[in-house]
């Protein structure tokens, strides 16, 4: 049994509204956060837009941001809907996700070793590139390196917070199409490298899910009670991940 915990201050508030863009009403999720966020950021996916803002941002500033970008939101969503489910061709202009943010791929062939540069809203792959398959390998290797660094950090973080986890479990990474993660009977955790494309909250949800299997190696009522105690809003992140999952593993 867990000890009763004191209620924590609210660090994030979510709300939803709809933005009329030409002939469509596009859902917009507003996320106000107490994290070290200094400006408003706007992301667009096939199912709608997400606007992240500092906690005390006035509604007028949120509305102004949406109105200024109304046409861009519409055009971006149309492009993403067209690309959804289609296999990427690894050409400039395509959308590729990283940590929950849709980024525009830029391919620049030239001299030097092929590498990836992360921009504010772009992923630049440049260097000595033979063809689209080469671009794909370079980008996938970059995703793997980011996943190795971040997943280890988040696994250590959550292992230290959950009382039934004595030591940080061994971590393995694999590119998978049908599972986000798994936990073996001997306590080893495997995570899908495609997960690095999802928002950090979704990544944490999968890690917490697998860590809960160290205590309850099943999907019983006890397991889900453990999930709720560890991460009260896990169901929200599960739904979010399911909504974008097909796009993230299409490569």
From TrEMBL:
Cited Gene3D superfamilies: Metalloproteases ('zincins'), catalytic domain
InterPro entries, A to Z: UTP_pyrophosphatase-like, YgjP-like_metallopeptidase
Domain YgjP-like metallopeptidase: 38-242
A Pfam family per the record: YgjP-like
Protein name: M48 family peptidase
